[in-house]
Design the sequence.
């Protein structure tokens, strides 16, 4: 009987230590290598690393995303300028819909929200109505 209580006590101690060390780890240590998925868990917009987006443009887009949320249309936006912005999955650069599909799985485990991915090659979306999704998928003509 003494042996069981010792094993139980050891297991409880190890579990406690794992929890404590888990809270002490920096966020980057538990990241999955996809920067936008980490940022969008707490923010509405992911900005590319390069080129740096101006502060005024960031404030404007953040304000618009907050206004959309107040209007009962919360949306997450990922601006992807280069493969570096995709972390360990650079092969999805230039494939905005495939990246939107991937990113949606990464950030929607708690709450499903509409998602817009913007790349120079086009847009990718998740969580929109079929008509909105079709509109985004249509190629635009240059003026």
Sequence:
């Amino acid at each position: 009987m003494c042996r069981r209580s010792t094993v139980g006590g050891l297991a409880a101690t190890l579990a406690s230590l794992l929890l404590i060390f888990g809270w002490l780890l920096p966020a980057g240590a538990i990241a999955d290598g996809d920067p936008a998925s980490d940022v969008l868990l707490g923010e509405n917009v992911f900005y590319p690393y390069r080129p740096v987006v101006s502060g005024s443009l960031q404030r404007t887009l953040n304000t618009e995303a907050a206004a959309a949320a107040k209007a009962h249309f919360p949306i997450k936006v990922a601006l992807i300028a280069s493969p570096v912005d995709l972390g360990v999955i650079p092969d999805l650069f230039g494939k905005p819909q495939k990246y939107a599909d991937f990113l949606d799985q990464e950030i929607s485990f708690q709450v499903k929200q509409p998602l817009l991915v913007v790349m120079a090659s086009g847009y990718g979306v998740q969580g929109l109505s079929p008509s909105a999704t079709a509109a985004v998928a249509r190629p635009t003509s240059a003026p």
Observations:
- Confidence is low (pLDDT under 50) at residues 2-31.
- The first helix runs from residue 2 to 24.
- The longest strand covers residues 115-119.
- The beta strands are 45-46, 76-79, 115-119, 122-126.
